[in-house]
Write a structure and sequence with these properties.
five-stranded parallel sheet; Alpha/beta knot; elongated; Trp Operon Repressor, Chain A; 243 residues
Length: 243
C-alpha cells in the first residue's frame, strides 16, 4: 500500500519510524511518502497561506501550493484523496478497514482556519473527521488514521486474533483484561481466568464484552445482530438488576 501525505510538517511523520507500523513500513508492506507543501510556497518567505476573502478569523491555506504539491505525485499513485475536516464523515473501524483495501491513498493535512474550497472541490474525493473536536492541524488526524490503517494491513500484527477480537472489530467493546500479578493492591483476577477451562474463559470474555458494551456504548448494539443467547443474557442481567 502507498500512502501520501501533504503537510507543512513532514518531520512529524517520523512517528512511523517506531512500533508495529514502523516495522510494517520497513518490511515493505507500506510505503509512506510525506510531501512538504512549503516547497511549493508562493514567495521567498515560504508563504502558503493568506487572509480569507470577505474577512474572517485567521488565515487560509492557498489552493496553489496544495495543487502543485499534489501534482508531484503521479496520478496513478494518488489514489483516493482525503482531506481531514470537521465537515467530514466520522472515521470508524469499518471505514479504516475499507481504506486499508486501497492500493494508494493521499491525505491532505490542513492548517490554520482551513484550506481554499476550490482545492477541495477540484482535487479532494472525500472528507473525514476524527470526531467532534478541533485540532490545530490535520497532522494529528493523519497520524491516527494512518496508524489504524497500517494496523489492519496483513503482515503488520503478528496475531490475527488481535484484529478480529479487538474493540470495534466485531461491533463490541473488548471488555476487561488482566495480567500478572494475581493480586494487585488487594484486588484479585476473576477466578475463571485462572481456571484453565478454555470454554468457561471464552464464555466469560464474551459475556464481559457484551456487558461493557451495554454499559459504556449501548448505541453500538444497534448495529450488531445479537444472538439469542446474547439477548437472553441481557434480559437476565436487566431483570436481576446486575448492571
Amino acid at each position: 500500500m502507498n500512502i501520501n501525505v501533504l503537510t507543512i510538517f513532514p518531520e512529524i511523520f517520523s512517528f512511523f519510524d517506531h512500533g508495529l507500523a514502523g516495522q510494517s513500513i520497513s518490511n515493505g508492506n507500506v510505503n509512506l511518502n510525506a510531501l512538504d507543501i512549503r516547497k511549493n510556497s508562493i514567495n521567498k518567505h515560504r508563504q502558503i497561506d493568506a487572509k480569507p476573502y470577505g474577512g474572517g478569523e485567521g488565515m487560509l491555506m492557498m489552493a496553489e501550493p496544495l495543487a502543485k504539491t499534489l501534482k508531484e505525485i503521479p496520478k496513478k499513485k494518488r489514489g483516493r484523496v482525503i482531506n481531514f475536516s470537521p465537515q467530514g464523515s466520522k472515521l470508524n473501524q469499518k471505514k479504516v478497514e475499507n481504506l486499508a483495501k486501497e492500493e494508494n491513498i493521499t491525505f491532505i493535512c490542513g492548517r490554520y482556519e482551513g484550506i481554499d474550497q476550490r482545492f477541495i472541490d477540484k482535487y479532494v474525493d472525500e472528507e473525514i473527521s476524527l470526531g467532534d473536536f478541533i485540532l490545530n492541524g490535520g497532522e494529528a488526524a493523519a497520524l491516527c488514521a494512518i496508524d489504524a490503517i497500517i494496523r489492519v494491513i496483513p503482515g503488520t500484527v503478528g496475531n490475527k486474533n488481535s484484529l478480529t477480537k479487538d474493540t470495534f472489530s466485531n461491533g463490541f467493546l473488548k471488555g476487561h483484561s488482566y495480567t500478572r500479578p494475581e493480586v494487585f493492591e488487594s484486588m484479585t483476577v476473576p477466578d475463571v481466568l485462572l481456571s484453565g477451562n478454555h470454554n468457561e474463559i471464552k464464555e466469560w470474555k464474551a459475556k464481559n464484552s457484551l456487558i461493557q458494551t451495554y454499559l459504556r456504548r449501548p448505541e453500538l448494539l444497534n448495529d450488531v445482530k445479537l444472538t439469542n443467547n446474547q439477548k437472553k443474557l441481557l434480559e437476565e442481567l436487566l431483570t436481576k438488576d446486575i448492571l
